[in-house]
Amino acid sequence: MNSVNLKAELRQQLIAARRALTPEAKAAADQRIVNNALAWLVRNEVRILGAYLAIAGEPDLSALYTALPTHGITLAMPVVLERHQPLVFVHWQPGDPLAKDASGTMAPSARGDYLQPDTVLAPCIGYTEQNLRLGFGGGYFDRTLGQQSRPRAVGIAYAFAKVSFDAEPHDIPLDLIITD
């Protein structure tokens, strides 16, 4: 099976597994991820965190986002200004307005005042032993991490989503994966 087909099959399997989580199991796993992520962020003195708004059963980090200001961490969310370009990040707080960006996903409606995160959380549908990320296949995180001023990249995933696939030329390993 070629890499593109394998990744597509893995995406389907892992998204189905996320959907199969009971609300209670998902909430408990999400809270463990939030606890693990917050401890890591504080220990590593992160100042500007690029994060994400959960879609399609991704780990929900809302509780993390509300805790960040008490630790002096500024939250920035990704915005797609143009398809096939790297992400940009804008300051955002829970409750700030959202609007669809160029990719059709919800993002902060404010544009401008872009921030350069020192660390970015990347949601993973799946991940490998080598910290390769399986996402939705749009390439936005790979393009963002391929820039010269690359932030630390931390994958966020459920532990059951560890899989195996070969790296393609555009795949950029993450620095770390945080799971439940």
Structure at a glance:
It is built from 4 helices and 11 strands.
Question: Any descriptors?
Answer:
two-stranded antiparallel sheet; globular; alpha/beta; 21% strand; 28% helix; 180 residues
SSE order in H/E notation? HHEHEEEEEEEEHEE
Overall number of strands: 11
Low-confidence stretches: none
Task: Label the structural class.
Answer: alpha/beta
Give the termini distance in whole angstroms.
Answer: 30 Å
Coarse shape? globular
Rounded radius of gyration (Å): 16 Å
Query: Biggest sheet: strands, sense, closure?
Result: 7 strands, mixed
Overall pLDDT level: 94
Give the count of helical stretches. 4
In terms of quaternary structure, the protein is single chain
Strand order of the largest sheet: 6-3-2-1-7-10-11
Q: What helical percentage do the residues reach?
A: 25-40%
Portion of residues in beta strands equals 15-25%
Report on the structure:
With 180 residues, the protein is α/β, with parallel strands linked by helices. It has helices spanning 3-20, 23-43, 62-67, 140-145, and strands at residues 48-50, 74-79, 88-91, 98-100, 106-108, 114-115, 119-123, 126-127, 133-134, 152-156, 176-178. A seven-stranded mixed beta sheet has the order 6-3-2-1-7-10-11. The relative contact order is 0.19.
